[in-house]
Amino acid sequence: YIDASRFIEAANALDQRAKGDASVDRVALLTRAAELYERAADPGGAIEKLLEASALDPAKTALSEKLEVLFRATERVGDFASHLSERAEKIADKDQRAAVRFKAADVQRELGDSDAARETLLLVLNDGENEAALAWLVDDAEVVGIDRLMRRVYHHGAALHDPLLAATFRVSQTAKEPG
User: What is the pTM of this model?
Assistant: First the structure.
């Protein structure tokens, strides 16, 4: 198929093999199928196969990097942000999960969705203390107001794990009280 420049047929054959044979490296076959879809000028097909491969191996950063290029080229940056959020949920390693969530938050901010970025960074804090996420949220508090941010942080339970956050929340509540 490849010799005859029938890239889509070749990609379909690889896809069928990946789905039909449990003994093969499915991620590698799906990644190769995605490359063939790209050669056939079918970015949608390439994205679909890379998403399948990423679902099988969410810790594989190279897949997400390829997806970013394709999503940006097809002006589907919102879909890339969704992919990152979904991918983060499946990653077992806390540090890698946090890195993927930071990337998702960056993309969400790029799209102008600061609320989603805030929620994503609060998920980083749910995993435990993270100075970078906390610093971003504190900076963001200047924009959205400390009270609103602290309610969100406290609501997500992050304050339960961090005495400084809990104290800051109590101070922000006390400062609102008359008298």
Answer: 0.73
